[in-house]
Every structure is written in structure tokens, then in C-alpha cells.
Amino acid sequence: MKKFIEKLQFITHDIHQHSHIEQANIACSAGAKWIQYRCLTKNDEELLNDINAIAAICDDWGATLIVTDHIHLNGKADIQGFHIEDMDADFVKIRKQLGEAITIGGSSNTLEGLIRLASEGVDYAGFGPFFTTTTKPNNAPLLGVSGYEKAIKALKAKEIDLPVLAVGGVTLSDIDPLMLTGIFGIAASSAINQAEDMRAAYSAFYDSIM
Ligand SMILES: Cc1ncc(COP(=O)(O)OP(=O)(O)O)c(N)n1
Ligand SMILES: Cc1ncsc1CCOP(=O)(O)O
Ligand SMILES: [Mg+2]
Known about the structure:
This protein is an alpha/beta fold. 38% of the residues lie in helices and 17% in strands. The protein has a single domain, classed as TIM Barrel (Alpha-Beta Barrel), CATH 3.20.20. Helix 1 packs parallel to helix 2 (44-61). The longest helix has 18 residues, at 44-61. The radius of gyration is 16 Å and the shape is globular. The chain starts with 7 loop residues before the first strand and ends with a helix. The model has no long low-confidence stretch (mean pLDDT 97). 2-[(2R,5Z)-2-carboxy-4-methylthiazol-5(2H)-ylidene]ethyl phosphate binds at residues 133-135, 169.
């Protein structure tokens, strides 16, 4: 089942400036249509409190809510999909568990990983890191613009149709060169939620990508 995937995906994060709920609220009020709730520090009750509040915000604004990992919460709140960060996860098994209607995203640091994700039926892939990021320090080599060019060319040559989003350290000025590589879109967290004016930062990202 082909899913609607948004070109600009906002990822919430544990930061001191704004709670996850505030981040979702500000992003949605600035036009965000895709919120990935990424919280790896709370228990299930706390997660569901956040998720229910964010689901209501997403519902008001017509945004898709994706939760990072925590697939055991499927069915416990109005969640449209899950982004699985475990690159070795068995996505065939996860698809069987979650069903066709749930959007499933995966992450990869390599072209080979993207090919595997596509073969296991994920709906989109975050491919990174583009550049350094403090959101989740990563030892994988930085892809830079050329890393996306090479990967997209290789996927096209193999006729693999997978929405690939650049992720990790993407800032506003990176959007044009990244989109020119043929990627589907951008997933971003810190450049938006750590900006002095989050709403303006989200709008600038949106204007640049569309
Ligand atoms: C859309 C999207 N892409 C990537 C991630 C993070 O995935 P992760 O596996 O943590 O990436 P690495 O830092 O390990 O490269 C995400 N949450 N959402
Ligand atoms: C690469 C990555 N790893 C976990 S979330 C994420 C994306 C957010 O990165 P950034 O905050 O640099 O946009
Ligand atoms: Mg990972």
C-alpha cells in the first residue's frame, strides 16, 4: 500500500527550551504536516501522555504523527506510523506486526542499507548523517551532498522507488543542494527546535523545500 510521505519531516527531541508537546504545537502552527515524536527517555505512561497530546495537535492541523521506535504502543494512541532506528531490525517481521495501514520508516547510513530497507517494504528511509549533529552523535561517515548524489543515482539505476530523506545536521542553506540530488525530502530537528524563533525557522525550511 503506497503511503503519503511528507517532504519536510520535523523530529522532536529532548531539549530544555521546549517540551515535545510545545515543539509539535509550534511546528504545526507554522505549517508542519509531519511530526516524528522522538523520545527515548520516558516510560510508557509518560510517552502516552505526550503522544495523546501531540496526536490531538496533529489532528487539529491535519498532520501525520510518527513515533520513533516504541512499536509496542501501536493501537494505544492515534499514531499513524513508526520510525525504527535499529538499522538491523527485521522490517518484514515489523510489517507483519504493525499491518499494512501503518507507515513504517527506517534509517540507513549506506546505499546497501537503503536497498535492504526497500526490499523489506519500508515506506520511506532517513539516510544520513548528512553532516555532524549533536542530536545523536554518530560514527558513520558524513555523506555530504555527493553521498546523496551517488546513492540516488544507484537507486535509480536499480529502479528502486524509495522516498529517501536527508537527515542529520541539515541546515537551511543545505536544502537547495540536497534537493537537487533527487532526494525526496528532509528530516530535521535541531536547526528548527534550537532556533531562537522556532516558528520562523520551520517556515524558512518549508519555503525552501517547496
Ligand atoms: C527520518 C529519520 N531519519 C533518521 C532518523 C534517525 O535514525 P538513526 O538510526 O538514529 O540514525 P543514525 O544517527 O544512527 O544515523 C530518524 N529518527 N528519522
Ligand atoms: C540523525 C538523527 N539521529 C537521530 S535524530 C536525527 C535527526 C536529527 O538531526 P538534526 O538535529 O541534526 O536535524
Ligand atoms: Mg541508528
